[in-house]
Write a structure and sequence with these properties.
Layout lengths: L3 H13 L3 H15 L2 H13 L3 H9 L6 H13 L3 H9 L7 H8 L3 H14 L3 H14 L4 H9 L6 H4 L13 H20 L22
Helix pairs in contact: 1-2, 2-3, 3-4, 3-5, 4-5, 5-6, 7-8, 8-9, 9-10
Length: about 220
């Protein structure tokens, strides 16, 4: 019988080093032996990263998914093969009754990506107002989602960068680990110091002037 942990570790090691065919082979053996949601998610991830979205979709659609990571991956597969209603249902349920706060509580650190996808799904299905709300919520959770910011601009929303690119609250660092937040803060300081040294350059501060820091970066 296959022992789950070492095989999974080998699979993710292959994925991290771009050895996708090896990862697929190992994940297929693992799933054939165990056939759990976790093994299905691992195999579907391998297929997805190897560019075989249909295979990834097939694996997850045959397995009852309950974990946030599995739901999100299934939604991404549905998105790529143009099954948009299924993508939405994978995230919010078939009745579509979940609110944004409920989604944040369920999906945790990946909720910004979930809301960004939902926002695009709502826009594509002619629910523009709801889509804009989801996109704004996603951006408030993770201001590094430039594609989300760009989509809001394309929708004519003209979002104010200072509204989102703020790091003085736990909301805007919800989806950023401590090291990520520290790297951003260092980049902001370095860039603004560089601009100060060259005052004649016609460049404005990229980051809003806000010297406050969050009480504690989210780990």
């Amino acid at each position: 019988m296959i022992v789950l942990e070492p095989v999974q570790a080998a699979v993710w090691n292959c994925l991290q080093n771009f050895m996708y065919s090896d990862a697929v082979f190992l994940a297929e053996r693992l799933h054939a032996e165990l056939t759990t949601e976790e093994s299905a998610h691992t195999l579907a991830t391998c297929y997805y990263k190897a560019g075989d979205t249909l295979q990834a979709y097939d694996v997850l659609s045959k397995c009852p998914v309950s974990k946030p990571a599995s739901k999100y991956l299934l939604a991404r597969c549905c998105w790529k093969i143009n099954r948009l209603q299924e993508a939405e249902a994978a995230l919010v349920g078939s009745q579509g009754l979940k609110g944004f706060d409920e989604l944040v509580a369920e999906f945790g650190d990946m909720s910004c990506f979930v809301l960004a996808m939902l926002g695009e799904l709502y826009v594509k299905s002619e629910r523009r107002n709801l889509g804009v709300q989801a996109l704004r919520k996603a951006l408030s959770l993770n201001p590094f989602l430039f594609s989300t910011f760009q989509l809001l601009c394309n929708l004519g929303e003209s979002p104010n960068p200072k509204e989102f690119f703020r790091f003085d609250s736990t909301d805007s660092t919800h989806n950023l680990g401590t090291s990520c937040w520290q790297n951003f803060a260092h980049s902001k300081l370095t860039l603004n110091q560089s601009i100060a040294v060259h005052p004649h350059h016609q460049v404005t501060h990229v980051f809003p002037e806000d010297h406050s820091t969050p009480a504690h970066p989210v780990s």
